[in-house]
Design a protein that fits this description.
84 residues; mainly alpha
């Protein structure tokens, strides 16, 4: 339990941030799943545009480590190339 007003406010802020990050991660994972499950290279390319944008943003905002975002983009692109 928070001992001061500022600690209580920080706990409230952390809870709001946690929900935002959780939502952004869920959106990111869904976009990556759509790339992996695309049946054709064209579908994969369209899904990759969305996923790449979301991965770049997540890396910039430190939701995921920037190197992790780059690695995931590379692996998704390789999956599309092997279909195409």
């Amino acid at each position: 339990m928070a001992r001061s007003a500022s600690a209580a406010k920080n706990m409230r802020k952390d809870a709001r941030r946690h929900l935002q990050v959780k939502s952004q991660l869920r959106t990111l994972r869904t976009a990556m799943r759509r790339v992996r499950e695309a049946s054709t290279a064209e579908e994969g390319t369209e899904a990759m545009k969305t996923a790449q944008c979301l991965l770049d943003r997540a890396g910039r905002k430190r939701i995921v480590h920037p190197n992790t975002a780059d690695r995931l983009k590379s692996r998704l692109a390789a999956r599309i190339r092997e279909r195409g």
